[in-house]
Amino acid sequence: VPAIYLQPFPASSQEVFEGTVCDVETATPDVIINAIQDAGIVGLGGAAFPTHVKLKIPEGKWVDTLIINGIECEPYLTTDHRVMLEQIDHIFMGIRYTLKATGAKRAIIGIEANKLDAVEAMRAAIPPDLPVTIEVFKVKYPQGAEKMLIKALLDREVPSGGLPVDVHVVVSNVATTAEIGRLLPHGRGIQERVITITGPGVIKKGNYLIPIGTPLRYALEQVGLRENVSIVFLGGPMMGQALASLDIPINKGTSGVVVFTENEMSQIPPKIYPCIRCAYCVDACPIFLNPSKLGLLAKNEEYGLMAEEYHLFDCFECGACSYVCPSNIPLVQYFRIAKGES
User: Fold this and answer.
1) How far is CA 198 from the centre of its chain?
2) For a disulfide at 284, which of 102, 151, 252, 320, Cβ 3.0-4.6 Å?
3) Which helix (H) or strand (E) holds 242?
4) pLDDT in tens, 14-62
5) Residue 134 CA: distances (Å) to CA of 117, 119, 131, 189
6) What whole-number distance in Å separates Cα of residue 81 and Cα of residue 73?
7) CB within 8 A of 29, min separation 6: which ones?
8) Bridge partners, residue 241, by sequence
9) How far from the centroid of its chain's Cα atoms is residue 121's Cα?
10) How does DSSP classify residue 252?
11) Got the DSSP string for 54-85?
């Protein structure tokens, strides 16, 4: 089996990871983007896409609006909520850097209505010279997905197979933006992140600032687990993944860990039944795909047809189809396998 053997860098675990000092007033867009790359900043909403790549606008395209995503609609997770309450200055500094890097003329911060304390705190702290507005959304899943957010805020539709930049928008997670504002002025790299550790199986639920690379098992030992733990999700219960082992590191894309006990898992029907063509999944899909048809094609391993004719790669795996399915068909898992095979 091909493998890579990694050895730890021989340095103190507390040694600061150096980046590039960057002054927002004098830096050019390229200097800012390079500093973000040197800092190792990626999307902290879960995708972990390299931020410097997202902010590098392709030749021939332009951006007029920066959207800061503070929706955080995934159940149980409150990482972004705490960041918006406790790192407000870093967020606005990060917006300054990001506006300059992309050339966008304005920024809009989207926050759900169940975070009104964050809305009030952010609105009170908006710098008068910064073109920023805050929009409040009703609580609705999956409101925080990029395409949903752009449509709701600007009434622009990202084309199939396209990116937000195709409709002149860049979307940045609020925690990612805060890290840009926190790290770039001091020339430091990302070494830690805020993570929600919660669920019925956790004794000391909360949001914790944890060094990247910390073993998940060690982190869970610190907060304490109940005896009847059944399953651990990396991420939230809708878009996260159930873990087969706790012997993995916390990485930059780890936004949360949710632990369920046998009490909750016993309520889930164990058997998968045939599709009854009720179309509940079709109604639930936020981007108007046909999960029922995709599921049938996946069972027949017709992965090419799924991608070419039924827009498989437009699915962002929100899990709404699996959630409403009365036959308990794990549609999202089928789609993930299909994407890997396509």
Assistant:
1) 17
2) 320
3) strand 241-242
4) 667 777 899 999 999 999 999 999 999 999 987 889 999 999 999 999 9
5) 13, 7, 10, 29
6) 10
7) 100, 101, 102, 103
8) 234
9) 23
10) T
11) HHSPPTT----EEEEEE---STT--HHHHHHH
| DSSP per-residue codes, 139-206 | S-TTTTSHHHHHHHHH---PPTT--GGGGTEEEEEHHHHHHHHHHGGGTB---EEEEEEESTTBSS-E
How many residues in the chain? 342
Contacts of 161 (CB under 8 A, 6+ apart): 311, 313, 314
Structure tokens at 108: 């809009």
Locate 102 and state its tokens: 């992309």
Write down all domains in the chain, each with its CATH number in brackets.
Answer: 29-186 (3.40.50.11540), 192-265 (3.10.20.600), 280-341 (no CATH)
CA dist 63 to 44, 58, 105, Å? Answer: 22, 10, 8
Query: Distance (Å, rounded) from C-alpha 240 to C-alpha 232?
Result: 10
Q: Using CA atoms, how far apart are residues 173 and 155, in angstroms rounded to an integer?
A: 20
Please tell me whether residue 29 adopts helix, strand or coil conformation: helix
pLDDT score recorded for residue 20: 83
3-class DSSP assignment, residue 301:
coil
* Spatial separation of the C-alpha atoms in residues 174 and 327, rounded to whole Å: 37
Tokens of 33: 């983007």
Can you spell out the DSSP letters for 74-140? STT--HHHHHHHH-HHHHHHHHHHHHHHHT-SEEEEEEEGGGHHHHHHHHHH--TTS-EEEEEE-S-
